[in-house]
Amino acid sequence: MSDVDAGTVMPYAGDARDVLSVAGLRAGLSTTEAKLIRDGTNVIYRVPGGVVARVGPPGSRAVAERQIGASRWLSDAGIPVVRALSGMDQPTVVGDRPVTWWTELPEHRCATPSELGRVLAQLHSLAVPDSPRLPVVDPFDGLADSIDRGTALPGDDRTWLRDLLERLRGEYIALAPGLPQRVIHGDAWQGNVIVPDRGGPVLLDLDHLGIGPREWDLISLAVDYTDFSRIAHSDYQAFVSAYGGYDMTIWSGYRTLATIRELRWTAFVLGKANVNEKAADEARHRVACLRGEITRPWSWSAF
Prior knowledge:
Layout: H1 16-27, E1 35-39, E2 43-47, E3 51-55, H2 61-76, E4 92-94, E5 97-103, E6 108-110, H3 113-124, H4 143-149, H5 155-175, E7 181-184, E8 193-196, E9 202-203, E10 210-213, H6 214-226, H7 233-243, H8 254-273, H9 277-290
Antiparallel strand pairs: 1-2, 2-3, 3-5, 4-5, 6-8, 7-10, 8-9
């Protein structure tokens, strides 16, 4: 017997394309002509035959299994959702990297604010299930590590961000007992609900699906309206109306959740800043906004 425990999952040395090739052989799917769609946390490929493959990061098997279970549960519950392929074991695990297989979506556009509001209202009306067992969504997940690794920022900015993070934790803990827990998407924005050329809205990207306050799903579009002026007043009102009339911008806890969401957007860019000077410039700009050095409405570049 080797020094490695027999139950240990060995990491796979190849890149995402190599992982896809091995997974395709195991799943009985040809990946020779697969085309890269996106290279992010998950590396996503279009596979011939109307299939999309998502190659997860190392150690993410549990997340992949939860995505598959959530897709099937949501579909059974009547929520229009991206569909995992059936008739095969999912995920296909290569070393410590899971590959999940999905039905390719037809040509589509991003949802309007009104369409997003309707889908979220439907999602939030679901009873919390016993199975699949959904995790509690943590709005602060990974933020401390992102700040600590963000050496592209001056030390005083990182200290300020750490202090901001602790203040927001305290405010959120004080708010949480008064917020009913629901099934939430966890990263709800117009790009994660798409509308095919023929058919109604479809919910995508189930990485963060879990249990939490509905306000966490409503915050992104509300912040786009109040702090960035990315959507018109009429579009925001259409979102509120489609959701059922709840305008969270007048809720007393709004600014706390808005700042948490903006801190997450800042941390995302900060994660790229050590190797990308444009990302470093953008991270410094976003921190200046959070510190009150730049007045709203803000303009942040997409990454």
